[in-house]
């Protein structure tokens, strides 16, 4: 079955047409600046090593999706004869709240239930739903499946997901930890278990490190804790997000600087993290260049980033009663060898040792980074969220 994977943002649309059984990607790309001047689409056919850029107005996601469909059925550079070859459409859905603990076939009733969680993800859920409705309009009759970022973390016990607030805030407002990047954490932890030989019992820590970063503790394939919370703001220091912070500090800064709620939210989400400390960029690569040049604020930012990751590893190892494997994924996790080495360095007390020579060589695919005498496996595992979405879509549509 050919599955079209769609990930709609407020002004973007990522897509892949793939076979979830063989993992073959027929076409993929990105539509950017939807509804904004300078709209453009990237279209790539991996098998032909073919890639083009199309600059064309896209007032709405409808025009963007029309461009995608036209590209994949194009007589010269397309990958299918007609849209009828698309068996189903899988959608990345950010927030399923407590309603959705697994992927689901989308219909009006389900989408209304998703809309009820819009307050928990006001920027993402409406955009995701817009993508679903657009696909239903342009490809009527095709099954659409929603795959939720929050679903994998729904196995967390109450002791891990509850906040120590008045209980009615949970009962009435559903204020609790939900977690995000669930499809990535699922893929990486499942891949690690396969590498380990699918043992009955396993304790895995996943470090999904990118501009947005999160960690998870996975016991026997089930998530028992994760770093992000009610929103993606909690947890690790990130590119522009502050991560864990004393809530009173938020009120203190807001009042002292006379900021509105929106301005304070923007400060925490878009002006903090690596950007806030380093000051020159939110990009980890720029920060590392700054470190190499001796920039004191770049050094501080990197040290804070690494310290927080190590702290979560220690906490999760304690919570799980040990750890069998630590996995790195995401743009930083997969490419920043120096950060990986610094994170593992000092964890010898818990049995984790990294092979510095292997770690320093850039290799594609899954790479074992730990030494032979390391009691804890350390791996780099490139994540594949699109494959998770496609597989779930196939399973639901095919009744597997």
What features would you describe in this structure?
- Belongs to the acetokinase family.
- Its cofactor is Mg(2+); Mn(2+).
- ATP binds at residues 14, 208-212, 283-285, 331-335.
- By secondary structure, this protein is an alpha/beta fold.
- The protein folds into 2 domains: 3-148, no CATH class; 199-385.
- 38% of the residues lie in helices and 20% in strands.
- The protein has 15 helices and 14 strands.
- The strands form 2 sheets. An 8-stranded mixed sheet has the order 5-4-3-2-1-6-8-7, sandwiched between helices. The protein has a 6-stranded mixed sheet with strand order 11-10-9-12-14-13, with helices on both faces.
- A hairpin with a 4-residue loop joins β4 and β5.
- α1 packs across α3 (125-138), α6 (182-195) packs across α15 and α10 packs across α11.
- The chain is globular, with a radius of gyration of 21 Å.
Helix-strand layout with pairing:
Elements: E1 2-8, E2 13-18, E3 25-32, E4 40-45, E5 50-55, H1 61-72, E6 86-93, E7 104-105, H2 108-115, H3 125-138, E8 144-148, H4 158-161, H5 167-173, H6 182-195, E9 203-209, E10 213-219, E11 222-226, H7 247-257, H8 261-270, H9 273-278, H10 284-292, H11 296-320, E12 325-329, H12 330-335, H13 337-344, H14 356-360, E13 367-368, E14 377-380, H15 385-398
Parallel strand pairs: 1-6, 6-8, 9-12, 12-14
Antiparallel strand pairs: 1-2, 2-3, 3-4, 4-5, 7-8, 9-10, 10-11, 13-14
Helix pairs in contact: 1-3, 6-15, 10-11, 11-13
